[in-house]
Design a protein that fits this description.
Length: 525
């Protein structure tokens, strides 16, 4: 049954939102890290129903994600620490979307391995955001992440971001030429935050004669918070709001936690809102299997006053006390055909072939497996969007020599250290579920012998809840034959502090080249 909840407005792998209103339509962009296409663009007329209309990085010629590997940081065994290892993935970090004079700009950072040594900051643009046609990147010099554009009233354009080194990063700013990426002024620190680690995600707003800088602090997990400062001069000094933070869930038992990385905006009626990241943290177990998602909350910004944001809830409360609820038939998220498929890093796209009706996908198996990042892998999937739902696909069994060690099937993927593979092992004639989380030292395998012949059809299915993943399979085409329950995986096995979220899709690996496997009816809820 469809949920009446408003939040999250973009469920699943959707962190670091930024939003802009153009000609009566809101457009929102998220981080994508190691996934291609990158930087999805969502459109909405009412902030409640969104459509995935394209991706700002949609051609491999624009940039490379080949070095967007994931690093496992040391376990946090400090007093009061989480006891977990944090996983940091490279690739496309927090973008900002802005519009001026008929041009829409997205500015972002591409982080390369070894992490944080190389930061490629760039601008892409389009004159028609609906066309999914974006420019090649224009690069600019900035040793930091989370760049954000500000257009001042006098026509000057400023770039600010979170300048290295961390954890005590600083908010630096400079004037820029967006066409060339050239710095027009020296870079200057305008604020250092209120003392939390990793001051980042800055956005600059001008209102009632004041410049306001809004940032995130405390890291992107339990201590995440939004703070704000203001100045009469764009270069500062900026004075912090004495009632900071204006948004946080730290120290609470809220269901929606880790709230931060916010972009504030007005709707067509002048009401103030914020979009931010957060996680839905299951209270009994502490799992937050969907990762960082995009949430909507109400705000207030009276003339001459400081901005405020309300605690993020599943259903925001309006100024008049009304609970905002999703109307029946109001769909949360849809997509233009095919724009929501994703690959891992610099995949060989020709190794993933769609039929004309897009119902069949033929994979050319890769030698590289999803357990590593240095080599291309054959995998195509979609973001998991539902807490309670399912995903599946059917595969036609082929004849292949035992020396191929062909493995093909369904995969749940977060990064090269954390995944669940549900596949048919052609060489061993067995069906296998392999669960790996190197950060938690988890490596489990369930296997059962299953003799299949060429031409047989095997279907893979995973059904999920907030706390568990259940795997089952089915052989043949007779719909009267019941699915065979195989095994289940605790959601906590795939939960932990990270930057990314779950993607479910199909994969194929082989030790010999040019092995092709055909899948049908890939569906991910």
């Amino acid at each position: 049954m469809p949920s009446t909840d408003i939040n999250p407005i973009i469920p699943g792998f959707a962190p670091d939102p930024s939003i802009v209103l153009i000609d009566g339509t809101f457009f929102l962009v998220n981080s994508t890290f190691h996934l291609f296409p990158g930087l999805p663009i969502y459109a909405s007329k009412d902030l409640l129903s969104w459509k995935h209309i394209g991706n700002a990085i949609n051609r491999q010629e624009q940039l490379s994600l080949a070095k967007s590997g994931t690093t496992i940081w040391p376990r946090d065994d400090s007093p009061g620490g989480t006891g977990d290892c944090m996983l940091a993935t490279g690739g496309l970090y927090a973008p900002t979307i802005r519009h001026r004079d008929g041009i829409t700009y997205v500015v972002c950072t591409n982080i390369l391995q070894p992490l944080f040594d190389v930061k490629e900051n760039f601008i892409v643009s389009t004159t028609d955001i609906w066309s999914n046609s974006w420019s090649d990147p224009v690069y600019f010099d900035f040793d930091g992440i989370d760049p954000s554009i500000f257009f001042d009233d006098d026509g000057r354009v400023y770039m600010k971001g979170s300048a290295a080194p961390g954890p005590m990063t600083k908010i630096n700013m400079f004037e820029i030429d967006l066409k060339t990426g050239k710095k027009l002024t020296d870079e200057k620190t305008i604020w250092e935050g209120t003392g939390g680690i990793y001051p980042e995600g800055p956005h600059l707003y001008k209102k009632d004669g004041w410049y306001y800088v809004m940032i995130s602090e405390g890291g992107t997990h339990e201590n995440h918070m939004i703070t704000v400062a203001r100045s009469k001069d764009i270069w500062g000094p900026y004075d912090a709001f004495e009632k900071n933070p204006i948004l946080t869930a730290r120290g609470t038992d809220e269901y929606i936690r880790y709230t931060g990385h916010c972009d504030m905006f007005q709707d067509q009626q002048g009401n103030w809102w914020g979009v931010c990241l957060g996680v839905r943290k299951e209270k009994a177990t502490g799992s937050y299997i969907m990762g960082r998602e995009t949430f909507l909350t109400t705000g207030k910004w009276d003339e001459g006053e400081w901005p405020s944001l309300n605690q993020v809830r599943l259903n925001p409360i309006l100024d008049n006390g009304t609970l905002l609820v999703r109307a029946e038939g109001n769909v949360r998220l849809t997509s233009q055909p095919s724009v929501d498929y994703v690959y891992i890093r610099d995949a060989i796209l020709d190794h993933h072939r769609f039929s004309d009706d897009a119902e069949t996908i033929t994979l050319t198996a890769s030698e590289g497996d999803i357990s590593q990042w240095q080599e291309p892998v054959t995998f195509i999937g979609k973001r998991q969007r539902e807490l309670q739902g399912g995903a599946g696909a059917s595969m036609e069994v082929i004849s292949t020599p035992a020396s191929s060690y062909l493995k093909a099937g369904l995969a749940y993927y977060k990064d090269e250290h954390r995944f669940i593979k549900f596949f048919y092992d052609f060489s061993a004639s067995s069906i296998v579920v392999e669960t790996v989380n190197k950060a938690k030292e988890i490596s489990k395998t369930s296997k059962v012998d299953l003799q299949l012949k060429e031409g047989d059809l095997i279907s893979f299915r995973v059904e999920y809840t907030e706390t568990k993943y259940n795997f089952s399979y089915w052989v043949g085409t007779d719909e009267k034959v019941a699915w065979i329950s195989f095994t289940s995986v605790d959601a906590l096995d795939m939960t932990g502090p990270d930057f990314v979220g779950p993607v479910i899709g199909i994969f194929a690996t082989s030790r010999v080249p040019d092995v092709q496997v055909q899948f049908k009816n890939l569906a991910v809820e």
